[in-house]
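Troubleshooting log. The previous structure file for this entry was overwritten by mistake, so regenerating from the original sequence record. Sequence copied from the archived sheet and checked twice against the printout by T.R.
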Amino acid sequence: MLTLSMQNLARVGQRALAAGAAPLSSSSAPAAAAAPLVPGEPAQPVVRTDIPGPNSRAYLQQLSRITPCQTVQVFVDYDKSVGNYQVDADGNVLLDAFTQISSLPLGYSHPDLLDTLVRPQNLRAFVNRPSLGVFPGADWGQRLQTSLMTVMPAGMTSVTTMSCGSCSNENAFKAIYFWYRTKQRGSATDIPHEDLESCMWNKPPGSPNYALLSFEGAFHGRTMASLAVTHSKPIHKLDIPSMDWPIAPFPRYQYPLGDFVQENKREDDRCIARVEELMHEYQRKGVPVVGVVVEPIQSEGGDHHGSNEFFVRLQATAKKNGAALLLDEVQTGGGPTGKMWCYEHFGLPDAPD
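Regenerated output below.
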């Protein structure tokens, strides 16, 4: 999404400069400007060169000699980027309306985050890069209790920290597989020798034939299993081997919602019916759907929303068919929808799995 904003800004800047207009400057700012997000935040955008400018083009040429750069748009001066504004290597000041890829909810160089990172106890944690599953720091439990556990979704009691969105989803997929297989065996510890032997050859029963159901337009990451449940753009998936997993329609409503109540209800009915149909179809093929993976809002896929009723019915359908419900809040969690977790708007009878 940031790419779109840069391209649009580039077109605006190029047209203005071609017409002989002076670059935007603080002298033309409104008299009563809003208070900045953080001290030092620019008052408004400033376009000084083409975008990408000569410095970005030179850096791109340099970097492309050693690594693929097909998606690089501009190079950023992170020392000068503050608040809502990104400053590129040519001094263009760009309003970042999309917080990069929904990854900077507090903007650039927020002083509280900078202060947190330079504290000695935090610096040592970064430098020593602890293997948390084997050698966590003595204060690790207390750190989790005073941070992530304070915003734990209602009904959930544990947390696993991961480094990125894709790996968070991959780890959640594994948790679903473990949970489902344990239900089948009836024990988490009594593992048949056949399972231990066959998994080393990627064969059942140790490597069971399970499926995850996902939705048209979804985006869950670019690693292998996360890519298998991603369906937003061909560029993400082209030439990558994948799994034969079911893909259901995600609601596409007519707006304004108040004018199309019955039409949108029929759309919910259609999507839920297809979820149910696919789960039965794959069960008959001997490939049970063990998890339903969905975003509360399809963000990268185009800002598509499901109704509260859709998500309540989706959870009920998953439970009825013995599957877990995974809500991917990589882009919607952390407060941007007005609640800490977007799904809290839906009124689900139970917490997500």
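The beta strands are 85-87, 93-95, 211-215, 247-248, 289-294, 297-298, 304-305, 324-327. Archived copy saved in two places this time.
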